[in-house]
Amino acid sequence: MILQDNFARKFTYLRLSVTDVCNFKCSYCLPDGYEKPSSVCDPLNLNEIKTIARAFANLGTKKIRITGGEPSVRKDLTDIIRICSETKGIETVALTTNGYKLDKYIEQWIDAGLTNLNVSIDSLDPKMFKQICGQNRLTEIFAGLDKAAKLGLNKIKVNVVLMKQYNQNEFNQYLEWIKDKPISLRFIELMQTGDNKQFFMDNHISGETLKQQLLDSGWTRVISESHAGPAQEFSHTDSLGKVGLIMPYSKDFCATCNRLRVSSQGKLHLCLFGEEGLPIRQWCQQEESEALEQKIVEYLKLKKVSHFLQDGNSGSTRHLAMIGG
Asked: What is the pLDDT of residues 136-171, one digit of tens each?
């Protein structure tokens, strides 16, 4: 069975948040640091995660991306990766992380079945990195990336949010940085959330502007894999690395949507910028996944054709750490 909504979009990609906690203070997400909401209960446990992975796999999911918050704050992250990788039908297990534990644990994660790695690096300059993220860990993060490559992990991406008042002038520096590295850069367009309206207005850079700069510099569009994320990918004959642009404000961005989200609180989110998540946790308690599968199929009928970011409506998403972006 393949999950399909009312607009003939097929969903083979699950973004699974395992915590809403993050230890960074990124200016565009949690500038004041993480504060636990009064309504938050314990995150999904391993048995619940196992049921979720099995249910989505039975419904045709091929890829699970483990997100946060920052997923490595969980001491059982290695077990979570193993559960996902050992689930029949799951071909790709990805992790999005800020990288602060990468050097220490990447070998364990690969041994557990990790196939893809995304690391957020919002500046190549240590001072600017600290200004944006509130942490002075750039050296350790680079060491973790190098270690991952040496261990044979060949699907590594680096996520970057470019912002007018911070790192806008680093665009060309990033392109130089990947010339001799088989890394895929992901420039993610700054998105408005419930908590960052003024920041968004002061710092937003159109992804279409970056796209034109790439095309003018000889980069060409390449076709992405069927269960890849939403990035438009580009390559250049002079670069080992590739570039992806995630442009949620671009025309028809939602037309190729192939991913659903489950929060660490056990709610199904049909869209990053939709309304409140739909409860599925009570069906995650059962070892068998049939009831959960039925509920997911039922809920998918509610998915709308598009987000409404272009209208300034970010739904219930106060900040991206809530469900991992």
From this structure: 999 999 999 999 999 999 999 999 999 999 999 999
- Which residue's entry shows tokens 């079945």? 113
Q: Nearest-CA neighbor of 52 among 313, 285, 314?
A: 285
Q: Where are the alpha helices (DSSP H) in 19-72?
A: 46-58
What's 64's domain CATH number?
3.20.20.70
In order of 230, 287, 290, 325, the CA distances from 42 in angstroms are: 30, 19, 24, 20
Beta strands per DSSP E along the chain:
3-4, 10-11, 13-17, 63-67, 92-97, 116-120, 156-160, 184-188, 220-222, 232-235, 242-246, 259-262, 267-269, 278-279
Closest CA to 10 of 228, 301, 257, 248: 257
DSSP helix/strand/coil, 11: strand
Cα torsion through 122, 127, 128, 132, rounded to 10: 70
Q: What is the pLDDT of residues 82-131, one digit of tens each?
A: 999 999 999 999 999 999 999 999 999 999 999 999 999 999 999 999 99
Q: Residue 8 is part of which domain span?
A: 3-322
Contacts of 302 (CB under 8 A, 6+ apart): 270, 278
Distance CA 101, CA 130 (A): 17
Neighbouring C-beta atoms of residue 184, cutoff 10 Å: 21
Number of domains in the chain: 1
